[in-house]
Amino acid sequence: MADKISNKQVFFNPFSKDNPVIVQVLGICSCLAVTAKLEPALVMGISVIAVLAFSNVIISLIRNTIPTNIRIIVQLVVVAALVIVVNQLLLAYAYDVSKQLSVFIGLIITNCILMGRLEAFAMGNKPWPSFLDGVGNGIGYAIILIIVGFFRELLGSGTLMNVQVIPPSLYEQGYVNNGLMILPPMALIVVACIIWVHRAYNKDLQEK
Amino acid sequence: MENLNLFIRSIFVDNMVFAYFLGMCSFLAVSKNVKTAFGLGVAVTFMLIVTLPINYLLENYVLKAGALSWLGEEFADVDLSFLSLIMFIAVIASMTQLVEMAVEKYSPSLYASLGIFLPLIAVNCAILGGSLFMQQRGFANAWTATCAGAGWGIGWLLAITAIAAIRERVASYSNVPAPLRGIGITFILCALMGIAFMSFLGIKL
User: Fold this and answer.
1) Would you kindly state where each structural domain of chain A is located, as residue ranges?
2) pTM of the predicted model as reported, rounded to 2 decimal places
């Protein structure tokens, strides 16, 4: 690499300046679909962190032996194997959540964050920086997931982690849950708002 | 009739983009102009139509609990369903590679316009999503699975072409606030389209 960036930057950049969801625009699919409630969003975030970190390490370890022509298939197989492990673990220990997430755990395989980071980082870097990059990007992704999940659950069902937080007395005075927040399109609007706020502060990210 | 119903529902009600948010990444990245968007849409539709029946047969004759019983009595209680993810993605990735080679050989002009998208498709969640939904819903036969695949593909094609057309107009004619330019406004457009598509809910033939 021409400009050597420190491990610290590798780890912290994805949190905000180089966030995988709102700046690199990767992994949108799952980010939107699992965030109607906070709990699945949290589980999804943790699963992605785990898969991303380990697949980055594995690909980085074998990066010099992979023929370029078939690298996508190799990457997919590594990721798919890790996702199967996560899927089986969730089925065993968190069955309800894994029912809610349904196909989206399987879809971590085709989550663009994974392919994007594997192609862009793990293929050209040593295992330890790759691990940090994986964890950093995973956390960046999880942060967005949790913010979106927080607002959608709070405004949509008045609960957080399935615990009622909006006091019943408010409902008696005529407060109504915003049912629209539960519907899928509102996830897009919430992410758009996050992008709006984020880019208002980071002027260099704005597009012409 | 049932298949036709499923086909129509897959296009409008169960639209891959607006109901499940699958294939969003390439949906957002490749929707800057209508022509390339249409090309990618056609490629995705084609891959869905090809991979869904293959994965259906794989699921029902190899992977599902007891699916191997056609091999003999002793295989009747083999359950390979934990392997389904890796098998599905392998089928999709190798089919993409095959299609890419075939298109390159027999139709260079099509390859020139679609070529760059084909590798992208292996990692398009809409394709793997199609197979996983097929597994989850347990379709009656391979033909039904093909109909659903065609419907999902055409729905995706419709969505990406429409959003690309809107983005072309927005980019040249409207004054969007600077922080929302580009990706931000596209999210909002998608959301509005998604709400519009929800009016199809409950369609039945």
Assistant:
1) 20-199
2) 0.83
